[in-house]
Amino acid sequence: MPKSIKSLIGKLDNVKVTNNMDVNITSVEYDSRKVKNGSLFFCVKGATVDGHDFVPNALANGAAAIVAERNVDVPDNIVKIIVDDMHAAMEKIVPYFYDYPSRKMRMIGVTGTNGKTTITYIIRSILRKAGYKTGLIGTIKIMIEDEVLPIHNTTPDIVDLQQILFQMAQAGMDYVVMEVSSHALALHRVAGCEYDTAVFTNLTRDHLDFHKTFENYALAKAKLFSSLTAPGNVKNNKTAIINIDDPTAEVMQQHTKCPVFTYAVKKDADIKAENIDIHMNGASFRITGRLCQMDLFLNITGLFNVYNVMGAVGAALAEKIKPELIKQALAEFHSVPGRFELIRAGQDFCVIVDYAHTPDGLENVLNTAKQIAKRRIITVFGCGGDRDRTKRPIMGRIAAEKSDIVIATSDNPRTEDPEFILGEVEQGVLPALHGNFHEKITDRKKAIYRAIELAKKDDIVIIAGKGHENYQILKTGIIHFDDREVAVSAIKTKLAEEK
Ligand SMILES: CC(=O)N[C@H]1[C@@H](OP(=O)(O)OP(=O)(O)OC[C@H]2O[C@@H](n3ccc(=O)[nH]c3=O)[C@H](O)[C@@H]2O)O[C@H](CO)[C@@H](O)[C@@H]1O[C@H](C)C(=O)N[C@@H](C)C(=O)N[C@H](CCC(=O)O)C(=O)O
Ligand SMILES: Nc1ncnc2c1ncn2[C@@H]1O[C@H](COP(=O)(O)OP(=O)(O)OP(=O)(O)O)[C@@H](O)[C@H]1O
Ligand SMILES: N[C@H](CCC[C@H](N)C(=O)O)C(=O)O
Ligand SMILES: [Mg+2]
C-alpha cells in the first residue's frame, strides 16, 4: 500500500507543491499524534482546534509530507502541498492510498435516526448464514468476522474508515455492513466509499445542535442515496431500501437514481408487514409484497424491530439471499447488546436496558412496554450533555405520558452541569405527569436502585439511554458505568433485603 508522493499528488487538481521531491509515503494521517516516519499529514480544521497548528508535532513525529489549506512552515526536506479544499483532497488521496477497498467487497450502508445498529447486526447474521465472510462497522464495535476491534465514532473518519476497509478486504471479507451516521455524511467521512445497497430507517428529531435544521439533517442522510450513482462509481446493480412509512422517505427517494425496494406497515410497499403479533419474548409477522411472501418468527420484540427486520430483509433480498435462508437466520437471531435487553437476576418483575436516546426511540420502546405490560411501567432515563438540547423536554414529556413512575436522572453529562440538563428534562416531565409518581435523582446508580426498589411483581422497569455503554462521561472524566451491571446488583440487593 505505500505510494510515491508523486502518485498521490497526481490525484489532485489545482495544487501548489513546494519541495517537490520523490518520497515514499507509508501512511496517511489526519492526527499529528498518529504520524510516523514517512507519513503524509493532512491539516484538518476541526470544530475544536485547527490541524494546521499541529504541523510542528507532525514533523517531530517523522512526517514526510504535509497537505494544508494555507501556508505552513516546513523544512526543505519535507514536501508541502497546498490545496483549496482539504476534504476534497482527502477524498481523492485516502481511498487511492488504500487501493479503493470498498470496490473489492459488497458494501451495505444503513442510515437513519434510529435502528442502524440493530439492522446492521441483523444483516450481518443473515449474510453469515448465507456463508459470506462479513465485516461490521458501527456504534458498538468493529467486527472482522468474529475478531472485534474497538470503535470511537459510529462511523469512523475517512482515514480510519479506509484503513479498516483495507484491513477487511485483506482479510477476505465478501461483505461490509456499516452504519452511516449523519455526521459522517456531513463531514465527508464516507467519501470514496462506494455502497451497493443502502437502507433508510427513519428520520426523527436528533442532532439539531450539529445540523441546525431538520431539513439539513435530512439532506445529510440523502447524500448516502445520491452517492449510490455518483460520477466516478465503478460498481453496478445498486439498490436503495426505504421505509416509506417515514415522512422523510420522499427526500431519500428524490435523491435516489437506482432501483428502490420500499418497506412499510401502514402503506402498500414492496415489503409489507401484516398480521403483526408483539409479545414479551419476541414477535411474529407475515411479509407480503412483490419481492417475497414469508412468515417470520423473531426473538426480538416491538413494532420498531418489525421495521428493522423489514429493512434488513430488503437489503438481503437486494443482495439476492434466498428467502428461506433469511427466515432461518431471523429465527436464530437473538439480540443486540443494550437494545431492549432483558436483565434476569431472579426477580419477579421485568427489567429492560435500552439505548433509546431520542424522543422517537423512547416513545417506541415505551409503546412496546405498554403492549406487553401486565402492570406498571417504571422508566429511568436522562439526556446526554453537549448534544441536541431541544430533545430534552420532549423526551421528558414522552416518559411522563407513557410511564406510571418516572425517574429522571443523568445520561452522559459530558461538560454540562447535570442539574441544568435535568432542569430542561423536567420542563417536559412536570406538566405531563397527570398525578403519576416522579422523582429526580441525579446520580444514575441511585436512580436505577430506586427504580428497582419501587418495582413490584409483573412491573416493567425500563432503563433507557445508555444501552451497551460501559462508561459514563462526566465533567471530571470518564468512569466505568454499565446499566446492566448496576441493574443486576440492584436486583440482588433487593432480593437479599426481602429474604
Ligand atoms: C462533531 C464531530 O463529529 N467531531 C469530530 C471531529 O472533531 P473536531 O472537529 O472537534 O476535531 P478537532 O479536535 O477540532 O481536531 C481537528 C483536527 O486536528 C487534529 N489534531 C488534534 C489534536 C492534535 O494533537 N493533533 C491533531 O492533529 C485532529 O485529528 C483533527 O483532524 O473530528 C474528530 C476526529 O475525526 C472526531 O473524533 C470528532 O467526533 C467527536 C468525538 C464526536 O463526538 N462526534 C459525534 C458527534 C459523532 O460523530 N457522532 C456520530 C453519530 C452519532 C449518531 O448516529 O447518533 C458518529 O458517527 O459517531
Ligand atoms: N426502527 C426504529 N424506530 C424507532 N426507534 C428504534 C428503532 N430501532 C431501534 N429503536 C430505538 O432506538 C434505540 C437505538 O437503536 P439502534 O442502536 O439500533 O439505533 P442507531 O440508529 O444505531 O442509534 P445511534 O444513532 O446511536 O447509532 C433502541 O434502543 C430503541 O430504543
Ligand atoms: N450516537 C448518539 C449516542 C447518544 C447516547 C447517549 N447515551 C448520550 O450520550 O447522549 C450521539 O452521539 O448522540
Ligand atoms: Mg448505532
TrEMBL record:
<comment type="function">
    <text>Catalyzes the addition of meso-diaminopimelic acid to the nucleotide precursor UDP-N-acetylmuramoyl-L-alanyl-D-glutamate (UMAG) in the biosynthesis of bacterial cell-wall peptidoglycan.</text>
</comment>
<keyword id="KW-0573">Peptidoglycan synthesis</keyword>
<dbReference type="GO" id="GO:0004326">
    <property type="term" value="F:tetrahydrofolylpolyglutamate synthase activity"/>
</dbReference>
<keyword id="KW-0067">ATP-binding</keyword>
<feature type="binding site">
    <location>
        <position position="32"/>
    </location>
    <ligand>
        <name>UDP-N-acetyl-alpha-D-muramoyl-L-alanyl-D-glutamate</name>
    </ligand>
</feature>
<dbReference type="GO" id="GO:0008765">
    <property type="term" value="F:UDP-N-acetylmuramoylalanyl-D-glutamate-2,6-diaminopimelate ligase activity"/>
</dbReference>
<dbReference type="GO" id="GO:0009252">
    <property type="term" value="P:peptidoglycan biosynthetic process"/>
</dbReference>
<feature type="binding site">
    <location>
        <position position="189"/>
    </location>
    <ligand>
        <name>UDP-N-acetyl-alpha-D-muramoyl-L-alanyl-D-glutamate</name>
    </ligand>
</feature>
<keyword id="KW-0547">Nucleotide-binding</keyword>
<dbReference type="InterPro" id="IPR036565">
    <property type="entry name" value="Mur-like_cat_sf"/>
</dbReference>
<dbReference type="GO" id="GO:0071555">
    <property type="term" value="P:cell wall organization"/>
</dbReference>
<keyword id="KW-0132">Cell division</keyword>
<dbReference type="GO" id="GO:0000287">
    <property type="term" value="F:magnesium ion binding"/>
</dbReference>
<dbReference type="InterPro" id="IPR018109">
    <property type="entry name" value="Folylpolyglutamate_synth_CS"/>
</dbReference>
<dbReference type="GO" id="GO:0051301">
    <property type="term" value="P:cell division"/>
</dbReference>
<feature type="binding site">
    <location>
        <position position="387"/>
    </location>
    <ligand>
        <name>meso-2,6-diaminopimelate</name>
    </ligand>
</feature>
<dbReference type="GO" id="GO:0005524">
    <property type="term" value="F:ATP binding"/>
</dbReference>
<dbReference type="InterPro" id="IPR013221">
    <property type="entry name" value="Mur_ligase_cen"/>
</dbReference>
<feature type="binding site">
    <location>
        <begin position="411"/>
        <end position="414"/>
    </location>
    <ligand>
        <name>meso-2,6-diaminopimelate</name>
    </ligand>
</feature>
<keyword id="KW-0436">Ligase</keyword>
<keyword id="KW-0961">Cell wall biogenesis/degradation</keyword>
<protein>
    <recommendedName>
        <fullName>UDP-N-acetylmuramoyl-L-alanyl-D-glutamate--2,6-diaminopimelate ligase</fullName>
        <ecNumber>6.3.2.13</ecNumber>
    </recommendedName>
</protein>
<keyword id="KW-0131">Cell cycle</keyword>
<feature type="binding site">
    <location>
        <begin position="154"/>
        <end position="155"/>
    </location>
    <ligand>
        <name>UDP-N-acetyl-alpha-D-muramoyl-L-alanyl-D-glutamate</name>
    </ligand>
</feature>
<feature type="domain" description="Mur ligase C-terminal">
    <location>
        <begin position="338"/>
        <end position="467"/>
    </location>
</feature>
<dbReference type="InterPro" id="IPR000713">
    <property type="entry name" value="Mur_ligase_N"/>
</dbReference>
<keyword id="KW-0133">Cell shape</keyword>
<feature type="binding site">
    <location>
        <position position="181"/>
    </location>
    <ligand>
        <name>UDP-N-acetyl-alpha-D-muramoyl-L-alanyl-D-glutamate</name>
    </ligand>
</feature>
<dbReference type="InterPro" id="IPR035911">
    <property type="entry name" value="MurE/MurF_N"/>
</dbReference>
<dbReference type="InterPro" id="IPR036615">
    <property type="entry name" value="Mur_ligase_C_dom_sf"/>
</dbReference>
<dbReference type="InterPro" id="IPR004101">
    <property type="entry name" value="Mur_ligase_C"/>
</dbReference>
<dbReference type="GO" id="GO:0008360">
    <property type="term" value="P:regulation of cell shape"/>
</dbReference>
<dbReference type="GO" id="GO:0005737">
    <property type="term" value="C:cytoplasm"/>
</dbReference>
<feature type="domain" description="Mur ligase N-terminal catalytic">
    <location>
        <begin position="25"/>
        <end position="92"/>
    </location>
</feature>
<feature type="short sequence motif" description="Meso-diaminopimelate recognition motif">
    <location>
        <begin position="411"/>
        <end position="414"/>
    </location>
</feature>
<feature type="binding site">
    <location>
        <position position="153"/>
    </location>
    <ligand>
        <name>UDP-N-acetyl-alpha-D-muramoyl-L-alanyl-D-glutamate</name>
    </ligand>
</feature>
<dbReference type="Pfam" id="PF01225">
    <property type="entry name" value="Mur_ligase"/>
</dbReference>
<keyword id="KW-0460">Magnesium</keyword>
<feature type="binding site">
    <location>
        <position position="469"/>
    </location>
    <ligand>
        <name>meso-2,6-diaminopimelate</name>
    </ligand>
</feature>
<feature type="binding site">
    <location>
        <position position="465"/>
    </location>
    <ligand>
        <name>meso-2,6-diaminopimelate</name>
    </ligand>
</feature>
<feature type="domain" description="Mur ligase central">
    <location>
        <begin position="110"/>
        <end position="316"/>
    </location>
</feature>
<dbReference type="Pfam" id="PF08245">
    <property type="entry name" value="Mur_ligase_M"/>
</dbReference>
